[in-house]
Amino acid sequence: MGLTEVGIPEESSVPMKHARILRGPYQMSFDITNKCNFRCLHCYNRSGENPVIERELTDDEVLEFANDLVSLKLFNLCFCGGEPLLRFELMCKVAQILSTSGSRVSFVSNGSLITEEVARKLLVHGVTAAQISLDGDNPISHERLRGVKGSFTKAVNAIRILKEVGFPKIDVAFCPTRWNIGEIENVFFLCKELRITRLRVQPLMPLGRGKENAEFIVPTPLQYRELVRKINYLKKEYSTSSDTTIEWGDPVDHLIRLPTILRHCSTLAEVKADGSIEVSPYLPITVGNIRRHKFSEYWSAGLVRVWEIPKLQELATRIVSVKDMGRNDKGVPTVWFDEDITIDIIDDNNFGGPNEKAKPVFRKESLLYEREEKESYLTIISKTHPEAKEVIINPTARKILELADGTRTIEEIETHFTNKYPEIYKEKIKADVLRALSSFTRLGVIDWEDENPFLYKYEEPLTGRYYLCIGQEDNLKDIESFIGFAEEPIKARKKLVLYKNPVITTDEYTKLKLRKKLFDFSEEFFLLRRDSGIEGLISIALPSHPKELGAVLKLIICPENFFKDLFKYSKDYFPYLAVRDVSKIKFYETNMERVNDTLKNFLLEEGFKKEGELKDELGFGKDLVIYSLGYTQEFIEKAKEARKEFI
Ligand code: SF4
Q1: Whole-number pLDDT of residue 518
Q2: Would you state the pLDDT for residue 439?
């Protein structure tokens, strides 16, 4: 079963910038077993005979894993395999744990073990979606691939049973071969008759047994062309009139997306039957094992950004077509035949965290106020962030500050605590030390000998050498000269989106005032950078009155082609950064100086609504029209929570 076959979307809709706040992946596929009662000719992971079977997780280990997943609140867990129903009782227990905690649970199956009793029990335990394989419109085609007599009738019956007992979502996976590829239309009509939700088709993968048998099962390129033509026709013809959809999935797609545009935010996860964590079932590499550390710990250690690992990128870029999956490259293990390359993102390096060789320095002069409390607690107020008010530091965090004297690396500080508290789990201590250092950095009471290792959180790469980031105090000079550049009317030219809030005073961005804005975060600057220069900017100001909740769009100077990216980045990040709650962003226009149409249309498309009009607000007959865009309550709460972690 491949990624597309197991009901996992190939594309995450989660923006990369949210990686830092995700508490877990959205989708997980879990090979609950690699045992199988079939030996299909195309089985990509050689279920029933691959070496993983010897070291499968025990029932207790699986249950422990399931309980660990509860806190991550997955959107969906899919049982894959192998034939998952060979561990039916265990499957029910895991499903119960996850569905009770709000996750959706699905499974893939060859259908042979599904009876009415099994289907009802699955449903009772919270399994609500299934995918059954159907590789033809008749027993001969299907069973030639599956190798088991009667398996076609059983698969069709399984679908009927699942439907009858009330499974809300049933997909069918069809694997094209040289002999069944012409049956696609009939399979689609059969699916329609069975009231299937979706028919999923993807090319046969030349991996595992599919590789061994490739010569006589893989369709010819011409056959594939014909198949896609028919799928497109079926899609077009039945897209509105039918409840059954058909989908042609590209199994290579995720190997292009994940190492590139999603490398900072992969929200998918896969766990093999032996507990190995993998990033793609088609690559010979694992990045951890839940027998060594809990899955949640891998997530905290940076699994979301696992695709930043160069080795993964190197392996993925070898594959540009389905054919390449079966390629034997020197020095690269063959998937599902050889042992995988093993990296452990917790044990092998500090992937996902800051550079542990960085040396923090606590500077007393960064404190506006300090007071000794009872029991070795300390209260401080930071000079940089007085708005964070009194921060009470417990004795352990205080010790971290003491050890941060510029001579010790993060690693050495962690070692101090792991030696001191051998009974506490090492990873827990590491996570706590990093969290404390991150908070102190954000508060401005810790500096770094080299580059601030926590800064990566505030950047997001775009295409080319562009990236989006948040303006820091250090950027004062650059921001000032960039705004100055745009102030020159001659340079306010086409291909730039320019907007200046009409209530801005003329000297609002002098060096001193700009510094104040950056220093006290009263106005946040979001930058489009290329190499070291600024090429675009959007600024949003906090409401001036503490009881006001609407932030105001102040300045936009941005090349047209990057404007949308920069705007969305600013809008999404602002509530997380704002030192207090913000419920909306406002933008103003006057009846005398109207906002550029491109900009206004875009903002209206983004959801800004006219909030009101103030007559003669700016004198000389200048009316002020106010538009605003509200954040949902849910988003505000999320931002609030994230801010607590940050500061
Ligand atoms: S039923 Fe699925 S897991 Fe079992 S051998 Fe066939 S393809 Fe592999």
Answers
A1: 79
A2: 72
CB 282 within 8 A of CB 204: no
Residues in the chain: 647
- Regarding whether 400 and 265 lie in a shared domain, the answer is no
Pocket of ligand 1 (CB under 6 A): 36, 38-40, 43, 47-48, 81-83, 110
The answer to the question of residue 39 being in a domain is yes
Q: Please state the domain count of the chain.
A: 3
> Is residue 79 within 8 Å of residue 107, measured between CB atoms?
yes
Q: Does 500 lie in the same domain as 427?
A: no
Whether the CA torsion 260, 264, 270, 272 is positive or negative: it is: positive
Position with higher pLDDT, 108 vs 617: 108
Cis peptide before 102, with omega less than 30 degrees from 0? no
**136 CA distance to ligand 1 middle (Å):** 15
3-state SS class at 59: helix
Are 238 and 316 contained in the same domain?
Answer: yes
Residues of 207-234 as b/e, b for ≥16 C-beta within 10 angstroms?
bbbbbbbbeebbbeeebbeebeebbeeb
Q: If we measure between CA atoms, which residue out of 25, 85, 82, 88 comes closest to residue 56?
A: 82
- Residue identifier of the C-alpha nearest atom 7 of ligand 1: 43
Distance (angstroms) between ligand 1 centre and the Cα of 152 equals: 14
Top mutation candidate among 5, 30, 40, 109 for ligand 1, by most atoms within 8 Å of CB:
40
Task: State the average pLDDT over residues 495-508.
Answer: 83
The residue whose CB lies within 8 Å of the most ligand 1 atoms, and thus the one to mutate among 56, 83, 336, is 83
Say if residue 499's pLDDT is above 80.
yes
Q: Which atom of ligand 1 is nearest to the CA of 42?
A: 7
Question: Do residue 505 and residue 562 come from a single domain?
Answer: yes
Residue 47 alpha carbon to ligand 1 centre in Å:
6
pLDDT digits (tens, 9 = 90+) for 50-98: 888 999 999 999 999 999 999 899 999 999 989 999 999 999 999 999 9
pLDDT 10s digits, 203-223: 999 999 999 999 999 998 889
Q: Which of 447, 471, 496 is the last residue of a domain?
A: 447
Residues 420 and 509 in one domain: no
Both structure tokens of 244: 């059954």
**Token pair for residue 291?**
């027998």
Centre of ligand 1 from the C-alpha of residue 201, in Å: 16
Question: Which residue has a Cα nearest atom 3 of ligand 1?
Answer: 82
Domain span including residue 394: 357-447
Same domain, 319 and 181: yes
